[in-house]
Amino acid sequence: SSIMSFSEAEVQSARGAWEKIYVDAEDNGTTVLVRMFTEHPDTKSYFSHFKGMDSAEEMKQSDQVRGHGKRVFSAINDMVQHLDNSEAFLGIVNPLGKKHATELKIDPKNFRIICDIILQLMEEKFGGDCKASFEKVTNEICTHLNNVYKEAGW
Asked: Function, please (predicted)?
């Protein structure tokens, strides 16, 4: 599917939904990662410095978890700003995907996990409409990241 399949109305409602959760990027980004680590403990193995942390409380306090949560949200924010410009969008997605595939060797299923937790959090905090307006964005992001992985021979 092409990134250009977003109508102007979809772009606007997706940005509106994202803004609500991005206002607290560090806290919400941390919540998403902590949920991923607790619900999918195997994902912790990619972060050697998180391995010793077992409690969600410990993770929430960690500067490294908080920092990474904020980075994840910043990257998605950059993508959301370029939903109407596929060249710029891919300019963000491609290097990010390549780095995670080749250097970090992160299983691409983790992108879907993170996106699903973001949608879950949106629904909890702001309701089903908020989640619905962002779902297409998460599908696009995951599709394009998976394509980058395929090209990288994953």
From this structure: Involved in oxygen transport from the lung to the various peripheral tissues.
